[in-house]
C-alpha cells in the first residue's frame, strides 16, 4: 500500500492528466497520535452531529465504511464506495480547482491524506483526511446529493479561470501548508495570511471559476439544509469541524435562504463564516447550479466567452455552431457590432468534433496557432454551414475553385479551395485553401507562404470553456506543485510520546494487555505535562474499568493542564463528557 495505488473500475476511467495528482496514502505513516486525533474528532462529532446533521450523514458513515476508531484506509473504502458508484483517491493537499472538480465529474472523491495536528484539532484551513473522508464521503451515500456533486464537477471543470485565480490558489495552498507545518514561525504564517488577504481584495471582476467556487463553498463545504428556523448540517467543512459545527447552529451565524445570489458572496478560508445558506432540499441545489450554468460561456459562447478565454491566458476551447471545436490559448478576437468575426490562438492548437480530434488537425498541424472567421458571408442570407452541395457549387465553395469569401464584418478569405470536412449531419465544418490570403481592412491575417489555410465554418460561437475539447490532443501531464506538504523530522520527545499513545491504543484494542496505564500516566506527567488527549484516553479506560484511584489521579492531572492551558479546557471537558455519555448509553 505504501508504494502502490489499488485501482478499480471507477478509477480506471480517469484520464491520465488526473492520475498525475494521485499519490499513495501511506497508511503506516499515521502515528498513534494521529489515530487518537481522528478518534476524538469522530467521537465528538458523531455524538453532537446525531442531532444537528442531515440524516444522510450518520447513515452514510455506515454505508461508506468509515470507522470512528481508526483513520480509514481509503483504498479499503473503495471496496465499499463502489456500491454507490464512487471511489476515493489520495492527493497532497489542495489541487487546482478545475482538476478537483473534474475528479468529481468522474465520481471520485479527492482526499488529502494528511491529518491535522493535535493543536489544530478544531479547525484547519488545510484539507485533511478528517475533512475529506469524514466530511464529504458520508453524504454522497444520498443519491440526490451524489448526483449534484457529480454534475457540479462536470460543469465546474469547464469554468474559465483568470490568471489571478491561479495566483490565489497557490497562495491559499501555501498558507494551508505552513499553518499545518509544526515548525512554521508566526511571522511566516502572518505573511502568508496577508498575501491571501491582499489577493482576495484585488481580484477584480470575478471569473467563472471564482463564482462557481463560491457556490461550492456555500453548499458542498458549508451548506445547511432544511428550514431557516431548524437547519441541519450537510457541508463537509462543518461536519469535520468540531468548533464550527456547534457554533454555526447558534444565532451568531446568520442563516440565509440558498439561491443564485450566493454566487456573489465571497468567503475567507482563514476565518469562521459569519453567515450560511440553507437549501430546502438537495434537489434545490441542482436547480441553482443549472441557473448558474446558464450564465457561463459554456452555454452562452459569443464574444464574451472568447474574451474570458483570452483573459484566462490558459488552454481553452470554443465550439462553433457546426460543432467544430478549436482548442488552444486564445490571444485575439476581432469584433464587429458586439459579435466576434475572427478568432485567433497562439501556439499549439487542435481541432475536434464532439470531443474527438479531427484527423490531421492536431497540434503538430497547427503548432503556431490558428485563426478563423466567424459568421455569415456578406450579402448572402444562407450561412455556409446551411448550404446544400448545389449552393456550395453556386457560390464557388468547391474543390479546385479559386474564390474570395467576404464575411459580414469585413474579413476576406481568398485562395484555391483544396477540400472540406463535414460533420455527421452533412454540414460543412472545415474548408482548406492553398495560396490563401486572409485580410481584415488593412491587416493581413494569413499569407500564402504560410502554407495551407484551414478555415473553421460556423456562423456563431455557441460555447467557450476551459480545457481542450479532446483531452488527448495536448500533453496535460505537467502539474508540478509550487509547494509540498511539509513533513519535519520528529524529535526524540515526539517519538516517545507517540510510543505512549501506541501503548494505550494497543491496550484498548486488546493487542497488549500487559501495559501499565499507571506507569504511562506517570511518564506523561513527568515528560509530557502539556499533552491533554492521552490522559483523556487513559481516563476512558480507567472509567470503564471502574478504577477509582486511577480516575482520580488522571482528573487531577487534567485539572492542572486546564489551569496551564485554558485554551484546551473545553476540549478536555468535552472528551470527558463523551466518555460518561457513552457509558450511560451502553
UniProtKB/TrEMBL annotation:
Gene3D superfamilies: Aromatic amino acid hydroxylase. InterPro entries: ArAA_hydroxylase (IPR001273), ArAA_hydroxylase_sf (IPR036951), Aro-AA_hydroxylase_C_sf (IPR036329), Aromatic-AA_hydroxylase_C (IPR019774). Residues 1-259 form the Biopterin-dependent aromatic amino acid hydroxylase family profile domain. Its cofactor is Fe(2+). The keyword Nuclease does not apply. Belongs to the biopterin-dependent aromatic amino acid hydroxylase family. This is Aromatic amino acid hydroxylase.
Amino acid at each position: 500500500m505504501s508504494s502502490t495505488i489499488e485501482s478499480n473500475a471507477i478509477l480506471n476511467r480517469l484520464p491520465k492528466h488526473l492520475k498525475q495528482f494521485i499519490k499513495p496514502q501511506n497508511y503506516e505513516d499515521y502515528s498513534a497520535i494521529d489515530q487518537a486525533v481522528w478518534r476524538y474528532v469522530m467521537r465528538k462529532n458523531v455524538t453532537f452531529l446525531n442531532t444537528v446533521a442531515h440524516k444522510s450523514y450518520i447513515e452514510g458513515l455506515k454505508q461508506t465504511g468509515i470507522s470512528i476508531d481508526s483513520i480509514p484506509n481509503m483504498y479499503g473504502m473503495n471496496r465499499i464506495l463502489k456500491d454507490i458508484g464512487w471511489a476515493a483517491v489520495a492527493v497532497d493537499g489542495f489541487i487546482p480547482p478545475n482538476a478537483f472538480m473534474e475528479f468529481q465529474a468522474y465520481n471520485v472523491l479527492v482526499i488529502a491524506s494528511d491529518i491535522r495536528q493535535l493543536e489544530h484539532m478544531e479547525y484547519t484551513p488545510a484539507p485533511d483526511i478528517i475533512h475529506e473522508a469524514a466530511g464529504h464521503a458520508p453524504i454522497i451515500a444520498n443519491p440526490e446529493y451524489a448526483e449534484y456533486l457529480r454534475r457540479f464537477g462536470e460543469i465546474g471543470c469547464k469554468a474559465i479561470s483568470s490568471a489571478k485565480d491561479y495566483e490565489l490558489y497557490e497562495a491559499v495552498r501555501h498558507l494551508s501548508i505552513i499553518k499545518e507545518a509544526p515548525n512554521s514561525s508566526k511571522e511566516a504564517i502572518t505573511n502568508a495570511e496577508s498575501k491571501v488577504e491582499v489577493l482576495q481584495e484585488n481580484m477584480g471582476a470575478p471569473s467563472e471559476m471564482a463564482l462557481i467556487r463560491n457556490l461550492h463553498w456555500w453548499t458542498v463545504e458549508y451548506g445547511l439544509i432544511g428550514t431557516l428556523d431548524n437547519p441541519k448540517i450537510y457541508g463537509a467543512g462543518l461536519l469535520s469541524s468540531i468548533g464550527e459545527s456547534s457554533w454555526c447552529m447558534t444565532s451568531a451565524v446568520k442563516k440565509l435562504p440558498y439561491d443564485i445570489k450566493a454566487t456573489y458572496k465571497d468567503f475567507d478560508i482563514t476565518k469562521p463564516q459569519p453567515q450560511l445558506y440553507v437549501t430546502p432540499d438537495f434537489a434545490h441545489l441542482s436547480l441553482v447550479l443549472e441557473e448558474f450554468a446558464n450564465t457561463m460561456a459554456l452555454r452562452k459562447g459569443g464574444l464574451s466567452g472568447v474574451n474570458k478565454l483570452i483573459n484566462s491566458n490558459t488552454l481553452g476551447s470554443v465550439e462553433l455552431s457546426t460543432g467544430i471545436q478549436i482548442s488552444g490559448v486564445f490571444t485575439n478576437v476581432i469584433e464587429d457590432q458586439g459579435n466576434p468575426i475572427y478568432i485567433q490562438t497562439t501556439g499549439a492548437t487542435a481541432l475536434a468534433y464532439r470531443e474527438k480530434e479531427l484527423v490531421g488537425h492536431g497540434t503538430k498541424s497547427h503548432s503556431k496557432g490558428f485563426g478563423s472567421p466567424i459568421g455569415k458571408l456578406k450579402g448572402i442570407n444562407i450561412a455556409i454551414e446551411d448550404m446544400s452541395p448545389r449552393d456550395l457549387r453556386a457560390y464557388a465553395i468547391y474543390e479546385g475553385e479559386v474564390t474570395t469569401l467576404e464575411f459580414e464584418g469585413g474579413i476576406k478569405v481568398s485562395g484555391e479551395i483544396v477540400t472540406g470536412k463535414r460533420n455527421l449531419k452533412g454540414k460543412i465544418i472545415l474548408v482548406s485553401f492553398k495560396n490563401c490570403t486572409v485580410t481584415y481592412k488593412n491587416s493581413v491575417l494569413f499569407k500564402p507562404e504560410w502554407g495551407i489555410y484551414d478555415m473553421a465554418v460556423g456562423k456563431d460561437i455557441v460555447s467557450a470553456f476551459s480545457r481542450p475539447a479532446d483531452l488527448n490532443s495536448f500533453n496535460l501531464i505537467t502539474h508540478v506543485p509550487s509547494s509540498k506538504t511539509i513533513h519535519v523530522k520528529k524529535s526524540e520527545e515526539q517519538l516517545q510520546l507517540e510510543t505512549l499513545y501506541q501503548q494505550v491504543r494497543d491496550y484498548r484494542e486488546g493487542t497488549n494487555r500487559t501495559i501499565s496505564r499507571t506507569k504511562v500516566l506517570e511518564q506523561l506527567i513527568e515528560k509530557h505535562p502539556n499533552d491533554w488527549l492521552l490522559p483523556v484516553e487513559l481516563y476512558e479506560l480507567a472509567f470503564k474499568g471502574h478504577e477509582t484511584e486511577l480516575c482520580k489521579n488522571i482528573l487531577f492531572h487534567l485539572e492542572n493542564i486546564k489551569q496551564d492551558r485554558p485554551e484546551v479546557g473545553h476540549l478536555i471537558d468535552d472528551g470527558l463528557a463523551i466518555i460518561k455519555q457513552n457509558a450511560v448509553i451502553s
